[in-house]
C-alpha cells in the first residue's frame, strides 16, 4: 500500500495559528485542539490565569519596573525583586512571582528583555535568577 502524499490543503493548521501570550502570566499559550474553533478569542493559558487576571498590584509592578530602569543607565539591569521590594516593603517575597509575571507581560509587548548571564532568554522557559533590561 502506497503512502498518501500530502496535498497543499493538508498544510499543518498549527502553522496558520498566531503565537499568543497569556494576558495574565505572560507565558506562551500552547494551542489546544479544544480551542480550534475560538483560537482568536483565547486570552489566558489556564483557568488559574483567567481567574487571576491583571490586578492593580500587577500594574503597579509594571510601572515600578519602568521607573527603576529609567533611573539607571541605559545598559543597566534590575532584578524583579527590586520592584517587589519597592512595592511590598517587608512582605516583598510574596510579590516575586507577580513581578516575574509583570516582566513577562512587558516582554510580550516588546518593552523589556529578560536575561540570564547577560544573554536574552525566552521568558516562558526561563528558570532561576533573571535580570530585566530595556530592549537593545
Automatic annotation (TrEMBL):
Recorded superkingdom:
Bacteria
Q: Name one Pfam family in it.
A: DUF2256
Which Gene3D superfamilies has this protein been placed in?
A: Winged helix-like DNA-binding domain superfamily/Winged helix DNA-binding domain
Q: Which PANTHER family match?
A: DUF2256 DOMAIN-CONTAINING PROTEIN, GSL3115 PROTEIN
The protein here is known as DUF2256 and DUF3253 domain-containing protein
* Species assigned in the record: Cryobacterium lyxosi
